[in-house]
Amino acid sequence: MMFFYNIFYLIAFIFYLPVLLVRGKLHGGFIQRLGFVGEEFIHRLSKKPNIWFHAVSVGEVLAIVGLVEKIRIAHPDRQIVISTVTKTGYVLAQKRFKKEDVILFAPLDLGWSVRAFIKAIKPEIFVVAETELWPNLLTNLAKIDVPMVMVNGRISDGSFYRYRRFLFLFQKTLRRFRGFCMQSAKDADRIIVLGGFPKNTMVVGSMKFDDVSTGEIITPAQVGFSQDALIWVAGSTHPGEEKVVLEIFKKLKEKFPSAALILAPRHIERAQEVCTLAVQSGYSAQRFSAVRATTVPGEVVVVDTIGHLKALYRLATVVFVGKSLVGNGGQNIIEPAFFAKPIIVGPNMQNFADITDVFLTSRAIIQVQDAVELQDALYRLLSSAQTRQALGERARLTVQKNQGATVLTQKFLSKVLNTNPFVRLS
């Protein structure tokens, strides 16, 4: 079966190359993804035994930060290797991890690329964040008995459907995993259906509840707003949502003249597009980087940098988390919840269904079905500081009640590193 998979993947890769070129995704790290690790990296990788963490993009990178730090403390004689797929994930990994850590773009799932990476890294263990199942990579790791562990595991409805269609590619390899540390009982059931052994599958919760901190403090003045501004942060928005947000904001300004808007598109390369849309909608708008440099006031600030959304959530009066209204799948709501912010999401939170259910059960977020309900919810929250405070406090308490997955996961990984047999969480 792997022979046919390799043929199919290679053909698909060749045909997809022009698409990558047009989209500007053939960055410098793409050569590395083909298996050309580079002599400098090979030298660095040879210094210590390596623990290989794979985190596909920004969300996965953020999820494992706390875990990596705990593993670093527990195993100072090992070297941390982080691989990621997206350019934004790579940039964030360079910022969030230590200089001595090795940050790489992950290999494409081509036989020679995968083998080149494994030969260079020689991992003691391979740790994959959430669900990144690449047949060639996992098969080649299994062939040389590298322990494999999934952490912060989750399988969305769409991923579960796709993986089940290609069960023949994954089932055998998943049975070679030493452990699956899953976010919820549903995720655990799904990984077992796909091939994981029940005895090696555990529900530990989401590490994203643990990956929260006070971080940087940004004042209203630093984004050009007055101290008494009612700041609406629309975070991780996707195409189509910004137009809805700007239309609602126009109506909010009529009732709340001190209202201000921070728009943070999920992909910062869209920042100029979103900024132009805001100007066309009649607002004075500035990119976040320009405001911080010149303190130019404006009604709308468009975020064009990586790593500042958490601090901006802390600044917010009210938060809307995007990819949930017009988009599909939702984004992480834990960061604004940690800061006790009143949070609104749309109907499409499939990628964070379990986390959303936890918050809904605790009456800790507001979920709306459309733009009309979003506008109504914003009116209610901006009209009452007491309502905002109560909702935000329930959100903060929900985060606190669900913390602890990182410690459990670290203990499990340490047991795998220190023992050869299959192990379990105690």
Structural commentary:
With 426 residues, this protein is an alpha/beta fold. The chain folds into two domains: 14-210 and 404-418, 3-Deoxy-D-manno-octulosonic-acid transferase, N-terminal domain (Rossmann fold, 3-Layer(aba) Sandwich); 220-401, Rossmann fold, CATH 3.40.50. The protein contains 19 helices and 14 strands. It has a seven-stranded parallel β-sheet, sandwiched between helices. Strands 10-11-9-8-12-13-14 form a seven-stranded parallel β-sheet, sandwiched between helices. Helix 4 packs parallel to helix 5 and helix 11 runs parallel beside helix 17. The longest helix is centred in the first third of the chain and has 21 residues, at 2-22. The radius of gyration is 22 Å and the shape is globular. Residues 421-426 have low confidence and may be disordered.
